[in-house]
């Protein structure tokens, strides 16, 4: 069974750091296009960052560039999101999502209805940043 489980969310103050984890089971990270996404209150789900399977590079949404880092542990089948210098606008539920289509970075540039409906999603982990 294909499954994703996120963890690491918390309530923190502006400027703090957090590291989120996304544990995959039922498939390996090499078999899916997987990325980090977030959904803020009243807003649509948006892409945050991902690692391309084709070139191994990490790609990010503009507002998190220089503050967030995506990494992976192949042996542990886990994707990570290191978030530094957090801002109140980073408040959201963070999800990892996996697909067999929409390779990185296309999967985080536009979260299409097809991706929303067809991706495997974890339950999410909540990040709240106070000012």
Mean pLDDT: 96
Subunit organisation of the chains:
single chain
Number of helices: 2
Give the radius of gyration. 13 Å
**Helical coverage, percent range:** under 10%
Q: Percent of residues in beta strands?
A: over 45%
Global outline: globular
How many strands, what sense, and barrel or not for the largest sheet? Answer: 7 strands, mixed
Give the low-pLDDT segments: none
Kindly state the number of beta strands: 11
Instruction: Please trace the helix and strand order, writing H or E for each element.
Output: EEEEEEEEEHHEE
Structural class label: mainly beta
**Distance between the terminal alpha carbons, to the nearest Å?**
40 Å
Describe this structure in words.
The chain has 131 residues and is mainly beta. It has helices at 106-109, 113-118, and strands spanning 3-7, 11-13, 18-25, 33-39, 46-51, 58-60, 68-73, 78-83, 92-99, 120-121, 125-130.
Give keywords.
131 residues; mainly beta
Overview in brief:
The chain contains 2 helices and 11 strands.
Helix and strand arrangement:
Blueprint: E1 3-7, E2 11-13, E3 18-25, E4 33-39, E5 46-51, E6 58-60, E7 68-73, E8 78-83, E9 92-99, H1 106-109, H2 113-118, E10 120-121, E11 125-130
Parallel strand pairs: 2-11
Antiparallel strand pairs: 1-3, 3-8, 4-5, 4-9, 5-6, 7-8, 9-10, 9-11
